[in-house]
Give the backbone structure.
Amino acid sequence: MIERDFSDYYYKQFLNEEKLMGSRCTKCGQLYLPPRALCIKCGSNRMEWVQMKGNGKLVAFTCIAVGHRFVMEEGYDKDHPYCTGVVELDEGVRIAGRVLGVDEKNPENIRIGTRLKLAYLHRGEGGSYCTSITFRPVTNTGS
């Protein structure tokens, strides 16, 4: 059993450890991602940490050509857009994240329902170190 509070701080700490952690109500079984300390379905505060596998399918997306300063510093702009999507994980919860490995310049080639796998994007160091959730298409290698 994991002994950490259900907070943004610990959620981000888990991401830095490359663990996608949500919470599950031990009373009704409802899953939450990001985690919650209180179940909004049944009102219980009996929650437990649960690790998500990170496999899912794309249910919505947008390609963005204008972004935050840190995205522009990574080389994204009107000529080099990036893709952000909503992924429904196999566990049933949905999470937003950057989608890598797709054709952002031709969004008509990106397909809803595409199978995706979680990847972690690490930035910074020391006190400014953070990890972002990203996803990549699952490639079928025949094995």
The beta strands are 21-25, 31-32, 47-51, 55-64, 82-89, 94-99, 115-123, 130-137. The chain has a mean pLDDT of 90.
